[in-house]
Design a protein that fits this description.
Helices cover 36% and strands 28% of the residues. By secondary structure, it is α/β, with parallel strands linked by helices. A hairpin with a 6-residue loop joins strand 4 (89-96) and strand 5. Helix 4 runs parallel beside helix 5. 32% of the residues are buried.
Length: 214
């Protein structure tokens, strides 16, 4: 059996869902999903899900952080070792207008890209997976992908674009290596199948869908 690991760029994934929801309101149901169940639906014959690794950072806004925590915690509760969370962090970045010198503070996510890249390479070095699926449309992942393609030719690298997200560079890389990216926006039924009940209870613990996501 071929082991398949999904590496999810959490910010990219959630931003894509929010953007697609503005076009089609049905995508709102994709906020509260069993993410392991979602990606299990993409497995082929002779493949087994090794793990879904979700890379993210806690938003500085308390309400946003609370919603994110509910999603992550419920997925950890129901999926156990099949779901892993790797956290970066947000830092306030000062941006100054070069003309008027007016400054604003904007949160910027740190560590996620580096952590995801290192993890993919590390899993190949330690032979923890056979098929690596990057769930992101960030072209910054081109260098680690090319490194793996050159140095670990026995591993299969795939790219899944989150809804509303696309990278021509990542797409070109996949085509160069005789692969096609998967467009998650074309798979709304799989998201809906993976939607959880408003309240999820297991082992005496319960998590509820955030009111804003109902």
């Amino acid at each position: 059996m071929k082991r398949v690991t999904f590496y999810v760029d959490g910010f990219n994934f959630y931003y894509g869902l929010k953007t697609e929801k503005k076009i089609n309101s049905k995508w709102k149901k994709a906020y509260w999903i069993n993410i392991v169940k979602l990606f299990e639906q993409f497995l082929g014959k002779g493949q087994v899900l090794e793990k879904v690794v979700y890379f993210t950072a806690s938003p500085l806004n308390k309400d946003k952080s609370s919603r994110q925590s509910a999603f992550l915690n419920v997925n950890k509760l129901i999926n156990g070792d099949k779901f892993e969370i790797v956290r970066g962090k947000y830092l306030n970045k000062i941006i100054e207008c070069p003309k008027c010198h007016y400054s604003i503070s904007r949160p910027e996510e740190k560590k996620t890209d580096v952590s995801l890249s290192i993890r993919m390479i590390g899993d190949c070095i330690q032979d923890k997976t056979d098929i690596l699926v990057l769930v992101s449309g960030d072209s910054d992942f081109i260098p680690p992908i090319e490194f793996l393609q050159k140095n670990y030719q026995g591993k299969n690298i795939k790219v899944y674009f989150p809804p509303a997200i696309f990278s021509s560079d990542l797409s070109a890389n996949m085509k160069k290596h005789r692969s096609k990216p998967v467009f998650l926006k074309n798979n709304l039924p799989k998201f809906l199948i993976s939607s959880m009940t408003d309240v999820v209870t297991k082992d005496g613990k319960s998590y509820s869908i955030p009111d804003k996501w109902k």
